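#struct-pred
JK: can someone run the complex with nicotinamide-adenine-dinucleotide? inputs below
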Amino acid sequence: MSNVQKVAVVTGAASGIGRGIAERFAEDGAKVVIADLDEPTAQEVASSIGENAVAVACNVTDEASVEAAVGLAVERFGRLDVMVNNAGILQISPVVETDVNDWDRMFNVNVRGMFLGCKAAAKRLIEQDEGGVIINAASGAGRHGVGMLSHYCATKACAISLTQSLALELAPHKIRVNAYAPGHIMTPMWDDIWEPYAQRVGKTVEEIKEIFLATIPWGRYGEPSDVAPGISWLCTDDAAYITGQTIGINGGEWLH
Ligand SMILES: NC(=O)c1ccc[n+]([C@@H]2O[C@H](COP(=O)([O-])OP(=O)(O)OC[C@H]3O[C@@H](n4cnc5c(N)ncnc54)[C@H](O)[C@@H]3O)[C@@H](O)[C@H]2O)c1
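RT: done, structure tokens with the ligand placed:
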């Protein structure tokens, strides 16, 4: 089955990769809930997509808020087929300067938020008893340590682990659980990272961009449109035998 007529919730869909996934789902003919902390931008994204999209203010760290986003999918479009737990945050911070509040914020959004999204979706999908798909945003940084990103990397390793455990647990319900591990995808997330990172290592932003680019065999940075088609495909029945996997989408930057 293609994604036509499927109903999806995408968290963090007001920006970057989440927006790209939501727009691709809508192009596929799916209905999509644009769930994001940034409600005005979520509304703009939903309006630009049209009648196949609806926006909702959603804080993924709050269980009631996540349940409401799934509830809206059911209320507006009659069911849930796909949950994409994409919302996430990134911060440059050497470990000795990382405040416990920074650590907790990172884990609250990237791990607790993902757990709550998986839980709300699994409850609904089990109730429907027709299978379904859950997709989580991991990262190459969940497989490889990166200096000054220790808390971020740790959360993304959690994303890979959570994906594996839930794939096993939910397989009897025919719910597939996979993750994507993007490399360097040019989104607003990077806007706040280039400058502090360059300063920390004593280089200019242009020099840092050149250094990172040299690590990508494909020879360019990625765009959300490089990620979205793979996610779309993972939701189709062509991917029916794929579960528990974390798929790298990175121009060859990391091979494992
Ligand atoms: N861009 C990359 O290079 C890259 C690489 C690897 C992994 N990722 C992961 O992909 C996902 C999307 O990243 P992006 O680059 O598109 O980021 P982005 O900053 O462009 O978008 C993130 C979105 O998440 C929303 N958000 C943040 N906190 C939220 C919360 N508590 N509740 C609901 N929404 C919240 C933001 O408002 C924003 O719209 C993240 O999980 C990120 O860690 C990105």
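RT: quick notes.
The longest strand covers residues 175-182.
Residues 7-187+225-249 form a domain with the Rossmann fold fold (CATH 3.40.50.720).
JK: thanks, will look after standup
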